[in-house]
Amino acid sequence: MTTNNNVLPSSAIVEVSSPFQQTHFLLLARGPKYVPKCQSYFRFHTIEDIIIREYNRMSAIIIKYLTNNCVSASDERAKVFLISLRNLLTDLYTTKLSSKLFHHSRQEYILTKDAQHKLYLTRQQIILRRTDKSKVFHLGSYDDYEQKASNYMIKTCAYEEVIDGKCPLADNLSSVMDLLDKLLKRKAINVKQWSTMIPNRNKVELGHLYFLPKPHKIGTPLRPIISSINGPTNNVSHFLDHLIRPLFDRVAKQTTFINGIDLVRQLEKYQENGHLLPTTHFVTFDVTDLYTMIPRNGALEALGRFLVKTSIGGKIGNLSIDTILKLARLVLDTNYFVYNNKYYRQIKGGAMGSAFTMTLANVYMLEWEQPLIELQSQQGEIYGRYIDDVFMTSNMSTNVIHDKLDWMNQKDHKHIKITYSVDQKVEFLDVQIENHYGLLKTSVYRKPAAEPYILPYSSDHPRHIHMNIPYEALLQAARLCSDVYTFDKERLNIEIKLLLNGYPPQFLKYHFNRFFRLNQVLQVCTELDAHKYQILHQKLLYLPTRREKKYQRQTTDENDKLVDKEWNRKILMLSHTYESGPSKNFRREFRKLWTKYYVYKGSVVKDVRIMITALNNSSLNDLLVRKKPPASLLTKMEALLSPPSSKIESEQETELKK
């Protein structure tokens, strides 16, 4: 493996010869998330098209907001306001860029178009993808990708080609519509649930399979992803996930790690309770190809048992267990996709990328891991899982630990295979954990192959995004690092990464000081005060993250029904496509416009809180990576392969009889 070395912080991982020049590699070094500047000035769309798109999106929201607040959206005031909004957008998008910004943006545009052209000409020789976890681009051999993909399919035996070559979309769509209609007719689901799960006929298409490289592992293996955002069962998959995941989270709350912060909390409590000894070992293991290898019938049976235990009167909300299992089997049995211009069906496990697959895999794993959970609980040890990664503590001898894990490896050896590690210094998620002679030491962990990549300062994102990055990085470090010296080392790493990604020194100085000032611990920065740091560490460690707040709501809400969020009349939420240049002033100018027309005595919307969220232009990943097959393959409606739903219903009836 070779990498394109440069003074930039990271570079594309290159494993194939390519027609790219140094300037192209410098472009790729900016990373998949990088957004080139001022794209509206160089796109094939006319400025008028962009103005119409922005205006139509915002005006529809504004009209709805006014109507819901019993304010006329068709009187003279509203008409003049909307005309003024249109004029504002026209002024912002037609004003010329400064000479310097125009020159820079035009160079980026030309370079990006040239890279697109070279990738198109060599599409049968090289493949560009973002890496699975290291946030950079990977340039690989087309033949190498094909060979690894073929080997993966042979190894897992999870996919079979549709031999007759006919597109199964019509058959899948008919199966979904037929089952949902029958469930509605039998009152097994209500109208709202039916409308939530029904596919959009105007957008429906088959999923497509692609692979992401994992260069942090030997040989750069590939991770399969099935993208089915508009698939026939995508809505059903999301419905089941929203229905069942809160139940699982509640049941498995004590043995699930939400993130690395959650792990550090449990480890520190473990140490406080006197369980961490100089001889304590840490155990980590991961499950190989979990999503692909779980047995379908076994997983559905496990789901049925799980639902029986968590149901009230044999129902989850208003749905019977029988109805939920029928919907679950529908999702699994209609998992068709396109790969290499051929149609395939997944016959084992669930699709990587499907919302319901992770929940189903979690339910199956919950049964599999019960012997370990019971053993750890009896011995007062930690056991926790994050999807397919597990962390445990143990005060048993290494021989006994190995025997237990080897037994677990044989428990369901056809489907669940684990690779484990037992040591006193391990890595799990984003945390490095060490038992230093009975003293717990934790720090931020990065894989050795991880590039020092952070969103470049020059990326065309709103400035508040860049302002939050130093604070969030220091926040994570203070939560995970167990002592002030480890934290200071991580602070230095963060500073170097940010400098290498173009963040100005004065910008970093201000925002680093802001972190310490807001948390009232300037001595940690200036004097490495260990006592002050421990106060900071404990305070931030137990400050819940956004993800934890969401998880907490799910695990404490006893109402299993999906509840619509109450609409807030005091908030007007708009979205606007951000880019450098005149249009970045849209937020300020819109507020002036609203104040002019709707902030007056007696106005019912004068106190509205205006929230304008930023939409981003296309990233380099959007502009350069091509993995979606032609629409003609994804949307072709051919004659049905079988009578509507007959095959699926037959399989479901057989399972119900069992």
Automatic annotation (TrEMBL):
A Pfam family: HTH_animal
Top-rank taxon: Eukaryota
Location of the Reverse transcriptase domain: 193-444
InterPro entries: HTH_animal (IPR058912), RT_dom (IPR000477)
Record's protein name: Reverse transcriptase domain-containing protein
Species of provenance: Adineta steineri
